[in-house]
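Table S2 (continued). Query chain:
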Amino acid sequence: MKDYKSALESKQKDLEITLKLFGEHHSDTAASYNNIGITQDDMKDYKSALESHQHALQIRLKLFGEDHSDTAGSYYNIAATRYDMKHYKSALESYQRALQIRLKLHGECDSDTVESYRAIGVIQRALKNYKAALKLHRYVVQTRLNKAARGVLP
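Corresponding output:
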């Protein structure tokens, strides 16, 4: 059985310590907010999760700017929470932002980039855009098969 309450308490304690050590505008602080958001999402406390992920994003934007893998990760996590809330259009926008950053930084075949394509395919299916969803899922499968054939793990 997963003890999300204890996990959340531990992550909140981690945030308190991180804030004391580094202050609000530090990458470890953003990571702490991100981790809290993931746990809140697991607990189905989507409103709190979204707030935590957005807080992490704001810190990361100030520290790193738009074109950074941690910033892309924040957009991705915001999208995942919005998906769980069934806010598919806003989830799609956030997944697309994550994808654009990942493409710029890492290219088409990076595992995080491919994961962004997969997530967008899931959103397209939820939005009943079945042709777009199928195209994206085929692309993901083909990319993963190509990587496996080259001996590159996803």
